[in-house]
């Protein structure tokens, strides 16, 4: 069974005259890295949110391992799919960086010693150790981005969606992030990478899907078969 199946999915924002997503048909496998690329406003973020039910498709069907996401709660979906938002400011809400990274684990009932071990690892890995006690919203853009990414990846969901994870990251930090994503993919955790950053996705992605004006105009998996000119 596919991990995510989108069938004739449309999405319309009330105040937008055109459809933000139009006739999206897509199957995504769990154990793979799928990149979604496309220009500003092409619908990448909308597609990510429709996949996890934050936005309900206005037409068509979204299935998560065969189950309609429209019939699942956000908490149920959130246990299966981690989501890093495009704007980390919307995601950060704890008093310190360490609490932010450990929040999901505490919530899942992990023992304090295990939470600390995991959080310490993430702080070191994402080079955030010196900010352990700092209020996350005071950090630089790139630091906030790393906290947001760490706080999602730490929960070890079977699947993650990262919306523009490289925004604000310098070349060195991008390399560290790519290494981490490659590592978690190698142990069977799949992901969707929404990104403008072709340099970043081309070395990571097993498959690249291209959006334009709310439609899929390219899919590296369908190259030559369905007439997409990727
Ligand atoms: N809340 C909203 N209300 C109305 N229109 C919206 C809303 N959010 C997004 N849109 C519009 O929907 C379209 C798709 O937006 P979306 O954010 O999905 O694009 P994107 O590909 O992620 O762009 P970017 O590369 O800038 O992140 C755009 O035309 C945008 O203006
Ligand atoms: Mg976006």
**Can you tell me the CATH topology?**
Rossmann fold
Helix content: 25-40%
- Any idea how many domains? 1
Low-pLDDT residue intervals, each spanning 5 or more residues: none
- Compute the gyration radius: what is it? 18 Å
What portion of the residues fall into strands of 2 or more residues? 15-25%
CATH C-level category: Alpha Beta
- Name the overall outline: globular
Strand line-up across the major sheet: 6-7-8-3-9-10
**Total number of β-strand segments?**
10
Query: Which CATH architecture is right?
Result: 3-Layer(aba) Sandwich
Termini separation comes to 26 Å
Mean pLDDT: 93
Describe the structure.
This protein has 230 residues and is of the alpha/beta class. The protein has one domain: P-loop containing nucleotide triphosphate hydrolases (Rossmann fold). Helices cover 32% and strands 23% of the residues. It contains seven helices and ten strands. Helix 3 (97-107) packs across helix 4 (112-125) and helix 3 packs parallel to helix 5 (141-153). It is globular and about 45 Å long. It binds adenosine-5'-triphosphate and magnesium ion (MG).
Write a concise synopsis of the structure shown:
The chain is α/β, with parallel strands linked by helices and 230 residues long. It has helices at 44-51, 74-80, 97-107, 112-125, 141-153, 171-186, 198-202; strands spanning 4-11, 21-28, 33-37, 59-64, 67-68, 81-84, 159-163, 190-194, 207-212, 215-219.
Secondary structure elements and their pairing?
Elements: E1 4-11, E2 21-28, E3 33-37, H1 44-51, E4 59-64, E5 67-68, H2 74-80, E6 81-84, H3 97-107, H4 112-125, H5 141-153, E7 159-163, H6 171-186, E8 190-194, H7 198-202, E9 207-212, E10 215-219
Helix pairs in contact: 3-4, 3-5
Residues 44-45, 86, 163 line the site of magnesium ion.
């Amino acid at each position: 069974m596919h991990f995510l199946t989108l069938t004739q999915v449309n999405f319309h924002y009330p105040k937008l005259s055109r459809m933000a997503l139009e006739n999206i048909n897509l199957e995504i496998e769990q154990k793979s890295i799928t990149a979604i690329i496309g220009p500003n406003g092409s619908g990448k973020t909308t597609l990510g949110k429709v996949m996890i039910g934050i936005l309900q498709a206005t037409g068509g069907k979204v299935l998560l391992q065969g189950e309609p996401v429209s019939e699942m709660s956000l908490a149920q979906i959130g246990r299966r799919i981690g989501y890093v938002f495009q704007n980390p400011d919307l995601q950060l809400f704890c008093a310190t960086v360490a609490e932010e990274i450990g929040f999901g684990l505490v919530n899942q009932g992990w023992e304090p010693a295990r939470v600390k071990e995991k959080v310490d690892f993430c702080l070191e890995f994402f080079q955030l150790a010196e900010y352990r006690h700092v209020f996350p919203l005071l950090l630089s853009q790139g630091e906030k981005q790393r906290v947001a990414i760490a706080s999602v990846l730490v929960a070890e969901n079977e699947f993650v969606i990262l919306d523009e994870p490289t925004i604000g990251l310098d070349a060195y930090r991008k390399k560290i992030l790519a290494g981490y994503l490659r590592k978690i993919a190698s142990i069977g955790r799949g992901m969707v990478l929404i990104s403008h950053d072709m340099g970043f996705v081309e070395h990571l992605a097993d498959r690249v899907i291209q959006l334009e004006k709310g439609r899929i105009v390219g899919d590296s998996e369908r190259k030559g078969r369905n007439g997409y000119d990727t």
